[in-house]
Design a protein that fits this description.
Blueprint: H1 2-35, H2 39-43, H3 53-68, H4 76-90, H5 92-108, H6 113-121, H7 126-141, H8 148-160, H9 165-173, H10 181-185, H11 194-207, H12 218-242
Length: 244
């Protein structure tokens, strides 16, 4: 559209030569806007830029490598967790090919959590980013516990992914059992009324419903189901404690 507008403006001021020059300049602008991911759309609150499946996989693996190396050692249990997850999502052949790249990243390269997460934040929907955080906590817990260093780096990644603090604490509580974890999962205080508990459960069940990731592969939908189940379990625990 810009090339035609530029052609008309060029004709108004410089007649036919101006129309040609305007068309050329407008075409260049059109190409630049498309290649830069739609900057005008972004400024106007348009659709997010998309990310190809291959780019998504490699960036997710990059975040995985950051979490695995966070405590200064590479755990075989954590590597196996990632491999199993990707085989379930993409099949053995494709997962193994991707995992060869992943091994190189884990062993030989320093990856910027900020750059990777911000790239994904600009190109993925919020429910997908929530699942990324759930996946990263799953990796950290694969060796039996989430270390302080792993928890801290996942919190940083959540910030770069533009995850709300209450949503982050909700997912974190699914991996850390405490007397208040059921309330944290539902994003409410322990002093909440029964009515507020029920309202919170409906809200969280809707937020974490597996249908939110219907566009993703099976492994990601399974992760969404796990979050959804944790919300149900938290609500049932509070119901039992309160007799409601």
């Amino acid at each position: 559209m810009i090339k035609w507008l530029a052609a008309v403006l060029g004709y108004m001021y410089f007649r036919f030569p101006g129309a040609i020059l305007g068309f050329i300049i407008g075409s260049l602008l059109d190409n630049y806007i498309r290649s830069s991911g739609g900057i005008f759309n972004s400024m106007a609150g348009g659709k997010k830029q998309s990310v190809s499946p291959g780019d998504f996989e490699l960036n997710l693996l990059s975040l995985s490598s950051i979490v695995i190396k966070a405590d200064g050692q590479v755990s075989q249990q954590e590597l196996d967790y990632v491999r199993s997850y990707f085989i379930q999502a993409y099949g053995k052949e494709r997962a193994n090919a991707t995992f060869r790249t992943f091994n190189e990243v884990v062993k030989n390269r320093q990856v910027s959590a900020a750059n990777v997460a911000r790239y994904l934040a600009a190109r993925t929907k919020y429910p997908t980013r929530l699942q990324i955080i759930h996946f990263l906590f799953g990796i950290a817990q694969a060796d039996g516990r989430v270390s302080e260093a792993e928890g801290n780096i996942i919190k940083d990644i959540a910030g770069y992914l533009q995850i709300g603090s209450r949503d982050f604490e909700s997912i974190k509580a699914m991996f850390f059992k405490s007397t208040d974890s059921a309330y944290t999962i539902l994003e409410i205080e322990k002093s909440a009324t029964d009515a507020e508990v029920k309202k919170a459960y409906r809200k969280m069940a809707k937020k974490y419903h597996p249908d939110k990731l219907g566009h993703m592969d099976e492994a990601y939908r399974k992760g969404a189901q796990e979050k959804f189940t944790k919300v149900q379990e938290a609500y049932e625990q509070i119901q039992k404690e309160r007799g409601i």
